[in-house]
Amino acid sequence: IIADSYATARDLTELYAIAPEKITTIHSGVDGRFCVRDDAQQASLTEALRAKYNLGPAPFILTVGTMQRRKNHLGLVRAFAQFLAHSSPAHTAQTPPNLVIAGGKGWLYDEVLDEVKKLGLSERVKFIGFVNDDDLPDLYRAASVFAFPSLYEGFGLPLLEAMACGVPVVSSNASSLPEVVGEAGLQVSPADINGLAAALTQAYFDPHWRAEATHRGLARAAQFTWTKSAQ
């Protein structure tokens, strides 16, 4: 049996009593189109992307994934509300970001929509639905931060794609995600709303950390290739 993470391999052993020696872990790779572009080339692509998905001119924090409970969109929305409310006066010179949620509607997504309305964030949280696969690299590159606070992932490919595009990442520390992000991003318990809000604050406002995270993320993503997986 091939598992795409050690976490999945452990689950197979614990839940199905499969002998560990029957399982080989082979991590996924990231496609080469997820990469950093030069600023001039990216600027025109970003403008077109913002128009296509009605993103507006504001910077944004991005998450990608079908709207379902294990993706923890509800926790992210609550943390985003805290992030906006508790940004210090020192941050006021920077434009507060929106939150962009890209992904189709799965099960029980209505509770996320209701929470956005309850928190008064209807103008700040943008649901753009399913994104064409060809647009994904440019969507990542346009983001200021990529947030992925999932409760459970078998691997967590969006984190890898974001890091390969040079985007600082905030991740949960659950299931397989520490295997993907390593030391390149901030890891928080998916149940810790305060911790997630604090991580978003650092990832968005701290220029030194952002530069280091981009550098570490690119190096981390370079370790995951489909050629290596095939070999």
Describe it:
By secondary structure, the chain is an alpha/beta fold. Helix content is 44%, strand content 13%. The protein is built from ten helices and eight strands. The strands form two sheets. It has a six-stranded parallel sheet, with helices on both faces. Strands 1-2 form a two-stranded parallel ribbon. Helix 3 crosses helix 8 (193-205) and helix 6 (157-164) packs across helix 9 (207-221). The longest helix has 15 residues, at 207-221. The protein is globular.
Low-confidence stretches: none
The percent range for strand residues is 5-15%
Count of DSSP strands: 8
Helix/strand-derived class? alpha/beta
Globally, the shape reads: globular
Gyration radius, to the nearest Å? 18 Å
In helices, the fraction of residues equals 40-55%
N-to-C CA distance: 16 Å
* Order of strands in the sheet with most strands: 5-4-3-6-7-8
Q: How many DSSP helices?
A: 10
Average per-residue pLDDT, rounded, comes to: 94
Order of helices and strands: EHEHEHEHEHEHEHEHHH
Largest sheet: 6 strands, parallel
